[in-house]
Design goal:
CATH topology of the largest domain: Rossmann fold
Distance between the termini: 61 Å
CATH superfamily of the largest domain: Class I glutamine amidotransferase (GATase) domain
Shape: globular
CATH class of the largest domain: Alpha Beta
Number of domains: 2
Strand content: 5-15%
Order of helices and strands: HHEEHEEHHEEHHEEHHHEEEHHHHH
Radius of gyration: 23 Å
Number of strands: 11
Strand order of the largest sheet: 5-3-1-6-7-11-10
């Protein structure tokens, strides 16, 4: 009997220890993450100097194309275009002298996906921009687009694109015409689904032997394990099947491919570099822009993944204490969680310690 009670006692102590440890860990995590800055939600374009100051004379127009699909096929889960994949290039294009029109496969109001955790000043400014919102509410039907009016076309990502971009004949026609006349074509994340059925005048697939990036199988299946049943295809598989040389970068980090006038990006974190590469391909030096805290976090994560924790700390110290640049702690914490979900507990502990290190560096800067 007494032995039984001793066992119960130690089980109770162990459970109590786990509860205390869990609560302590939660409080520690909350202490190293920044509070939500609700002031960002009121950001306007006038407050972003990159947009409002040192205007560049008009250089022409770029067409951004978004999906009209608001659910994932027969699945009831909602979808649409990704806001950050439209808002950020929209202002890069405008800051570099290009007017931006927005089209969709059906026209009218386009369904949008907004992830609050990924929102930054540019994204909130877009939501508060009356002209931009008028364009997303009244998108041009792709069949009514006048292709000759634009110097480039940009296909915005979002899971809805997998259902209405690939078989749209007007999209295929415009992409073929632009590619063959050397106009710039850009696409990010799921946006390259617009390219999969394009045939050139010589009968070959546009994608044949082209260096291309897009949302990877690994990224897709990690988020949606049943993706093969939901989508008509996995984007990486389809691009490869049609002859593309698929360039896969690190999971959920910046990666673009540049093949002459065709520029593609792997995921939402590729959006900034893709938009500015399109400006370069159009023949211009992109207007100077301070990197966002999210981009700096991506740089830290790339260094961590490729060179290790010690080197990542060096980059953090340099960014914060020497260059006075911000780093998005939440994004690094999200990658720590991804590591834990993938049973890479070393990545989880290392990345959470980097989040804490960033906070300590920020305290020293003050």
């Amino acid at each position: 009997m007494f032995k039984k009670y001793r066992v119960l006692k130690w089980i109770s102590v162990f459970i109590l220890f786990l509860i205390v440890a869990t609560i302590s860990f939660v409080f520690w995590v909350r202490s190293i993450l920044p509070p939500v800055d609700h002031r960002l939600q009121a950001t306007t374009i006038k407050e972003i100097s990159y947009i409002s100051e040192n205007s560049i004379p008009p250089r022409g127009k770029i067409l951004a194309v978004v999906t009209s699909v608001d659910t994932m096929g027969e699945n009831t889960k909602s979808t649409g275009y990704e806001l950050t994949e439209l808002s950020r290039p929209y202002y890069v294009f405008k800051a570099n002298g290009f007017e931006v029109d927005i089209a969709s496969t059906k026209g009218g109001k386009a369904p949008v996906v907004i992830d609050d955790e990924d929102m930054g000043s540019f994204d909130y400014a877009f939501l508060n921009d009356t002209k931009a919102q008028q364009k997303t509410t009244n998108t041009i039907a792709i069949e009514n687009v006048e292709p000759e009016e634009y110097q480039a076309i940009y296909f915005v990502g979002g899971k809805g694109t997998m259902f209405d971009f690939p078989n749209n004949k007007t999209i295929q026609s415009i992409v073929k015409e632009y590619y063959q006349t050397n106009k710039v074509i850009g696409a990010v994340c799921h946006g390259p689904s617009a390219l999969v059925n394009v045939r050139l005048d010589n009968g070959k697939s546009l994608l044949e032997s082209k260096n291309v990036s897009g949302f990877t199988n690994e990224e897709e299946l990690f988020l949606i394990p049943e993706a093969k049943e939901i989508f008509p295809f996995l984007l990486q598989d389809k691009l490869t099947e049609q002859g593309a040389i698929f360039n896969k970068g690190l999971m959920y980090l910046d990666k673009i491919s540049h093949d002459n006038n065709l520029i593609t990006g792997q995921n939402p974190w590729s959006t900034w570099s893709l938009a500015e590469k399109m400006i370069e391909q159009l023949g211009y030096t992109p207007k100077f822009r301070d990197k966002t805290d999210e981009e700096n976090a991506v740089d830290v994560l790339v260094v961590y993944k490729t060179e290790g924790k010690a080197k990542a700390k060096e980059i953090i110290k340099n960014l914060i204490l020497s260059e006075y640049k911000p780093i998005n702690r939440i994004l690094i914490a999200k990658h720590a969680i991804i590591g834990a979900m993938d049973w890479k507990l070393g990545d989880f502990t290392n990345l959470m310690s980097l989040v804490s290190f960033i906070k300590d560096c920020e305290s020293k800067k003050k």
